[in-house]
Amino acid sequence: MQAHAGQSLIQLQQVTKRFGDRDVVRDVSWNIQPGEIFGIVGPSGCGKTTTVRLMTGVYIPTTGSVSVLGKNPATFNAHDREQLGYMPQLFVLYPNLNVVENMRFAASMYGVSLTKRRKRIDELLDFVELDQARRTLAGNISGGMQRRLQLAAALVHEPELLFVDEPTAGIDPVLRGRFWDQFKELKAMGKSLVVTTQYVNEVAYCDRVAVMRDGQLLLVDTPDGLRRRALGSDVLTIRVDAEDLRNAVRILSRHQLVLGIERPHNAPLGSMMVYVDDASTALPELLAALATDPTIDTRQVGEYNPPFDDIFITLMERLEQPESKEQINA
Amino acid sequence: MLKDLVRIFAFCAKELNAIRRQPLLLVGLIIGPFLILSLFGVGYQGEQPKLRTGIVVPPGHRDDPQVTELIKRISNTFVIDAERHIYESEEPAVAALNNDELDLVEIFPLEMTTVYSTGKAVDIRFIYSEVDPLLRSWIEYLSYTQINELNKGMLFSVVGQSQQQIGTLRDYVSDARQQISQLREQLNSNKRDEARQTIKTLRESGALQLIALSMTQNGASETSSSTQSLSSFQASLDGLDRDLAAGGTLEQQDQKLAELDTRLGELDQQADRVQTIDPAVVVSPLRSVASNLAPIESLGDITKDPATAYVRFYTPAVLALLLQHMMVTLAGLSLVRELQQGTLEMFRVSPLSAFQTLVGKYASYTILSAVIVSVLVSLMVFGLGVPFYTGQLLNFALLTFMLTIASLGIGFLISSVVSTDSQAVQFSMLVLLMSVFFSGFFISLKSFLPFVQNIARGLPVTHGIANYQQIMLLNRAPEASTYIWLGGIALVSFLLSWLIFGRQFQRK
């Protein structure tokens, strides 16, 4: 089953999930388009997993509505569920079965026929680089390998839409990077992914990101959009010879595309941060402006991409101030 | 449909592989029961424990030959160390009992040697210290049978003495009849003086008085016709003597003599019968001869080889109990482990349903049950010589299947209501404990009140034990009611498990 052309793959409308008297997820709305990697980022306990469970149909919303692949997931039939892949936050396969046996179980669970499953399992074990460990008990492989096995198990029935709940939690950065490479490959294959993470810098791999805190959705944007919201504009870093800095600042501050200039701390002499609306448009024009003064020796130019950790902290700090919240969301 | 089947059988490979990877579990499931039964066969003595007994005899009678004989007679059922545990006072014997050197103290009073002369029954006291109700009953039963045997022994001796006395009586009777015969001849020949002389001899010999006395001593009633005839004849002899002296008619007297002779003849015949009866028959005139209609040849001769008979008898029960416990425990842990491990969350997202999960698990454990029972029964038949009738193979397979699914139902029901695996183990152990007490494994179902019997029938093993024994020992097919009960248990437990597990499985 596919979402109709132009229709969102997943649609949440003012979804609230209450356990007892506590709203674990409150008033969340978003649309996820087919073929995108949609990240959900936020600190532990912010409601990411609950939201994923609402989208997979494990939980039914207390209020609001959820639509996945054009249907309410709570009413999915077996065929609808075969379109979903799910990698839970924890390793929930069987430690006393080996890697291949776990894969076979996952394949059987989704009704994959015996004839199709062997080739598919081989491909997937190759994809997640577990081919060498196929006869090893799942309980005896490393945590990272268990995550990859869980991912392979979630893909064994070739789902259209994959929910991946904190796949990189607690594993080393190299392996995290490899996971994201695999997600990109899946996207290239036309799959849609919903990925949750606590690692803010991983949002860079996503097409769009939802930022959550305390069960609430703070904002949904592209990674660049998030950066811009945090910094207020695009930022260029320009370094000239230290003796030319005064002239360069004078020229740039008069330029109509420049919104402001800052001298960064702990940066080499001659460095400056130039705030502009759109870095890609402004950069050639500013270089041309600097070139009007032949005495200025421009040594380095580029777009300033601060780590997303910093961006996230900045966003959170700004969200603490009520008047800033509206600005950011705008 | 095909996908549904694939989903159901997802669990077969998974569960069987998981169990295959636990060699200790497999050893425990198959070799364990076989070793237990083998040890039972080797070590079981086939009888109740012999009691270490101390004997207290009257002071000064330790070396009395009568005491020696008494101890010899009771040594069949009591273990008596004649060197250490014959006492002449109660205190050291009771001290030995309290120190667990003895199981029982038996006290013989001096009065037991004079019981017939005093005419009063004497108490033989038994002192023991036992908590186990079965052992208590056993001791009391042994005490009772021992006293019965002692009483019979004493009675036997008395009967022997009486028979000797009856021999003397018969001598008197013979003498008396000879003289009466002589007297009648003399009367018929009208030899009055000789007749009077015979009467005198008869009187002086006192034979008739001795006969009367012997009969009284040997228990004949003083009002019996023979005794009365003898008494009246004493008077008749006096009358005859008077008539002979006076020269009167003798016809009436001859008639009385003939009557007395007849009486004495009868008495002699009776005495002969009593004398020739075996004293053992007098003491125990009735014997029990029980006939068991059950074809128990397959058990072997219980009197010659009790251990084999007991092993063969208990093997089907052990098999049933083991099968139920194994299935209850495996199923009991199964669902709750999925819950604890988090796989249930994966199932909920997947197309798998609670029904498919349950049926898949039923299928996997049923296959496991078939494998384990096949191996176990082979070991029992070829290793322990337990009988198995090949003609009952289908009935055996059907009963095993029904017992398996009924036991699995109870296990899954447990698993669907508990929240941790330790709770599941606890409940499985409770089912086992209940089964040991109420299934007829050790205690017959007939020992319980009807409502408890009906509760016991709610346990699959109750039907398993009775019908495995029927199939394996008696070569008989189970009753249809067995399958109705097991099917009922299986169906109800499945529906309840499905309902409860289905609610856990449901999207929340």
UniProtKB/TrEMBL annotation, chain A:
<dbReference type="GO" id="GO:0016887">
    <property type="term" value="F:ATP hydrolysis activity"/>
</dbReference>
<dbReference type="InterPro" id="IPR017871">
    <property type="entry name" value="ABC_transporter-like_CS"/>
</dbReference>
<dbReference type="GO" id="GO:0005524">
    <property type="term" value="F:ATP binding"/>
</dbReference>
<keyword id="KW-0067">ATP-binding</keyword>
<dbReference type="InterPro" id="IPR027417">
    <property type="entry name" value="P-loop_NTPase"/>
</dbReference>
<dbReference type="InterPro" id="IPR003593">
    <property type="entry name" value="AAA+_ATPase"/>
</dbReference>
<dbReference type="Pfam" id="PF00005">
    <property type="entry name" value="ABC_tran"/>
</dbReference>
<dbReference type="InterPro" id="IPR003439">
    <property type="entry name" value="ABC_transporter-like_ATP-bd"/>
</dbReference>
<protein>
    <submittedName>
        <fullName>ABC transporter related</fullName>
    </submittedName>
</protein>
<feature type="domain" description="ABC transporter">
    <location>
        <begin position="10"/>
        <end position="239"/>
    </location>
</feature>
<keyword id="KW-0547">Nucleotide-binding</keyword>
UniProtKB/TrEMBL annotation, chain B:
<keyword id="KW-0813">Transport</keyword>
<feature type="transmembrane region" description="Helical">
    <location>
        <begin position="313"/>
        <end position="336"/>
    </location>
</feature>
<dbReference type="GO" id="GO:0140359">
    <property type="term" value="F:ABC-type transporter activity"/>
</dbReference>
<dbReference type="GO" id="GO:0005886">
    <property type="term" value="C:plasma membrane"/>
</dbReference>
<keyword id="KW-1133">Transmembrane helix</keyword>
<dbReference type="InterPro" id="IPR047817">
    <property type="entry name" value="ABC2_TM_bact-type"/>
</dbReference>
<keyword id="KW-0472">Membrane</keyword>
<protein>
    <submittedName>
        <fullName>ABC-2 type transporter</fullName>
    </submittedName>
</protein>
<dbReference type="InterPro" id="IPR051449">
    <property type="entry name" value="ABC-2_transporter_component"/>
</dbReference>
<feature type="transmembrane region" description="Helical">
    <location>
        <begin position="365"/>
        <end position="390"/>
    </location>
</feature>
<feature type="domain" description="ABC transmembrane type-2">
    <location>
        <begin position="279"/>
        <end position="504"/>
    </location>
</feature>
<keyword id="KW-0812">Transmembrane</keyword>
<feature type="transmembrane region" description="Helical">
    <location>
        <begin position="396"/>
        <end position="418"/>
    </location>
</feature>
<dbReference type="InterPro" id="IPR013525">
    <property type="entry name" value="ABC2_TM"/>
</dbReference>
<comment type="similarity">
    <text>Belongs to the ABC-2 integral membrane protein family.</text>
</comment>
<keyword id="KW-1003">Cell membrane</keyword>
<feature type="transmembrane region" description="Helical">
    <location>
        <begin position="430"/>
        <end position="449"/>
    </location>
</feature>
<dbReference type="Pfam" id="PF12698">
    <property type="entry name" value="ABC2_membrane_3"/>
</dbReference>
<feature type="transmembrane region" description="Helical">
    <location>
        <begin position="24"/>
        <end position="44"/>
    </location>
</feature>
<feature type="transmembrane region" description="Helical">
    <location>
        <begin position="482"/>
        <end position="501"/>
    </location>
</feature>
